[in-house]
Amino acid sequence: MVGLTTTLIAALQVSSPSTAAPVRGTPEPAVFRGRAGELAVDAPKLDRADIDLDGRLTEPEWAQAAVLSDFTQYEPIENIPSTEATEVRVFYTADAIYFGIRAFDREPDEILARLGERDRAVFGDDWVRIMLDTFNDQRQAYIFYVNPLGLQTDGFWIEGLERGRGRGRGGGGSRVSIDFNPDFIWESGGRVDRQGWTAELRIPYVSLRFRSVPMQDWGINIAREVKRRGFKQSWAPLTQNVSSTLAQSGRLVGLHGLHPRRLVEVNPVVTGTRDGTRTDGTFSRASFNPDYGVNGRIGLTRNLVLDATVNPDFSQVEADDNRITVNERFALFFPEKRSFFLEGMEIFRTPRNLVHTRRIADPSGGAKLTGKVGSFNVGYLGAVDEGPTTLFGGNDRAVFNLVRARRDLGRNSTIGLLYTDRTLTGGGGANRVVSGDARLLFGRFTLTTQFAGSWTSDGSSPSGPMQPLFFLQLSRTGRAFSWSAKFDDVDPGFDTRSGFIPRVGDTETFGNVRFTHFGRPGSVLERVSFEVRGDAFFDHDEFWSGGTPFEGEVEAQSTWSFRGGRSLTVLLRDGYFRFRPEEYATYEILDGTNQPAPFAIPPALKHMKAVAVFPRLRVTNALQVNGRLFYREIPIFREADRGLELQVGPDITLRPTSAIQLSLSHTYSRIWLRRDRTQFSSVNISRLRAQYQFTRALFARAIVQYDLEEQSALRDPATGRPILVSGSPVDGVNRGDFQGQFLVSYEPSPGTIFFIGYNRLMSGERTYRLSRLEATADRLFVKLSYLFRM
């Protein structure tokens, strides 16, 4: 009898239409059922709203709001009713739009709801996401996530920009870029109760951009994830059989009388550092060094925003993660973390990364204009970089000018132009790039292309002829079957001093085919996917003269997704690599008489086998274990030899309480020489991150990281004799680095922040014992900024 009563109560909770009772004398709210195709929402406009954003939905305004209900699951199974009922209420006033969320849950004690810092909290928690396509152009949308405690994450949903092969998909199957870097000012509150959880959101129009017309429609969709089960659902149904996610949205229709305040923001910033360094065996600390700057923002129109900065603060709260660099041939990519460059930078994105603002190393000032004019997205970024002086000596500065325009074409397609210019003020040279790109949608097919040319001068002579770059990709989306093909060609002379193109002089061809089988609703095995990929790299000149590739691989990958957010991916690979003589032009060997002798390029490496396993395991709501395991044959580039690598990378996240988060990751890589099974290198990177969240705005964090490396001296693969590079032998490496950081941060809203922290770097022998490491640098840093919004 008790079990029957519990079941009936749970059923009533899930089917309950609302927690906001209608006010006597007011009409019943309009209900828009997503599965029934009722996707044109006529939300009421209220004269005023007196909402206490505590997540309770008790104010009378919620009883008048339009109700979005009847959600549809889109992951792991498409087009079935959602497992947990969701209702979202919406109304608007002259200066803001309001959302009230009721997320029912039959097991409220299992809801994942924890405190965390802004923009990171929802990734391990239950969440609801609101997407607002304010221009209704199905190309870009604001996204606002909220977890059950009202914590915020926001950014832009940008159609068609891939995050990388094999990485996550957005709802609806499009491989899209979700840019979490922009921070918008909005308000939210949430709470967990016996029926599930509720949240309230207020989004002021001053934080949004939209058309200047008296009556307008906005695209809208609502999504929800029940994290412990891995179930995702949406109000407007989503399918992977459509290439555009935003094209599947509903609409807020007939919005009128929107009167945002003029956007005017002033953000003064005060920072200070005290650095310590070891010089000639003595560790000393400089005096405290304060610095001042100011950022400003003004809305020229509803759609055009001008940002400017003088002596900007570009301090990074958290250092870049260490990467394994023992066997790398190309520069590693590190993302931008500086706030001035992050805001509004989505307009400058192109298929190949021709704008990478970390190239602006030490700016003294800058200005940026971004927005939309008619069917054109436009952007300009200018900055003066002291980097050529501070990094390379001399008296020159670099002036950056970046100009971008992108036009909407048809329902979902775009074409764009980009111009970048980096010029040294003292006549030391210039680099200029002109690029055109297009993204064209034809049903399930997407064609993405880009052509660019660069001109570079050293200042002593005119720039040479244009050096080209060409990119072309065709892809087909689909729930059960998808494929893509890519051609990427970069001339050896192509150069971008404002972007990041790690492989210059290569021509790449790539293709993949993916099949997916879905299990029955409720089954243990929810989804199985199988993908085959082929990738080949040619020397640019050899490709156009009919040559063969110098590098290639064929991979087969299968992913098994199980109930409860657990998965296992297995990868098999067969690879090929040919060493190119020009990369070893400075190599010689010591012969038997200790005299330099020519270095012989070894034959190509064929059939390099690899197997990899990627487990993802949610043990409990508090414990998540992920990892990777590689065992593979690889080219050892520094010795031009064949090697074997074992790489293990466990990653553990523990959330014992709603306020404590512990994450521990370790990367172990060991490379052997295939010819005699002796060790070439060994690397251990251990990282512990501990954070305590006192409130939504205040947290303390500690990070400890070890980077230990051992590498043997270079030896000739054929003779075992020492290798000379530019006439000198290359000795082995045995080192250890320790990095420690402690930070206390208070951030009640974007732009208003106070933090104080301490970094310490120690180096020495390859050991985990701090007593054997020597302090080489440290830094005490503070920051105080306040955002004034007029």
How would you describe this structure to a colleague?
The chain is mainly beta. The protein has a domain at 2-256: Immunoglobulin-like (Sandwich). It is 4% helix and 52% strand. The protein contains 5 helices and 48 strands. It has a 28-stranded antiparallel sheet that branches. A hairpin with a 4-residue loop joins strand 27 and strand 28 (481-490). The chain is globular and about 100 Å long. Residues 1-24, 163-176 and 316-320 have low confidence and may be disordered.
Mean pLDDT over all positions: 88
Figure out the total of helices.
5
Estimated helix fraction: under 10%
Rg: 28 Å
Strand content: over 45%
Task: Indicate the structural class.
Answer: mainly beta
Q: What is the structure about, briefly put?
A:
The chain is mainly beta and 790 residues long. Helices cover 4% and strands 52% of the residues. The chain is built from five helices and 48 strands.
Q: Features of this protein?
A:
mainly beta; 790 residues; globular; 52% strand; 28-stranded antiparallel beta sheet; disordered N terminus
Layout of helices and strands, plus pairs?
Layout: H1 2-15, E1 31-33, E2 40-41, H2 61-64, E3 66-69, E4 72-75, E5 80-81, E6 86-92, E7 96-104, E8 127-133, E9 140-146, E10 152-158, E11 177-179, E12 187-193, E13 196-204, E14 215-226, E15 231-234, E16 250-256, E17 264-279, E18 282-285, E19 289-299, E20 304-310, H3 339-342, E21 363-373, E22 376-385, H4 387-392, E23 398-409, E24 413-424, E25 430-442, E26 445-457, E27 467-476, E28 481-490, E29 506-518, E30 525-539, H5 540-544, E31 551-562, E32 566-577, E33 587-590, E34 596-598, E35 605-618, E36 623-626, E37 629-636, E38 641-648, E39 651-654, E40 660-673, E41 679-693, E42 698-711, E43 723-725, E44 728-729, E45 733-749, E46 752-764, E47 773-785, E48 788-789
Parallel strand pairs: 1-3, 2-16
Antiparallel strand pairs: 3-6, 4-5, 4-15, 6-7, 7-13, 8-9, 8-14, 9-10, 10-11, 12-13, 14-15, 14-16, 17-18, 17-19, 17-47, 17-48, 19-20, 20-21, 21-22, 22-23, 23-24, 24-25, 25-26, 26-27, 27-28, 28-29, 29-30, 30-31, 31-32, 32-35, 33-34, 33-43, 35-36, 35-37, 36-39, 37-38, 38-40, 39-40, 40-41, 41-42, ...
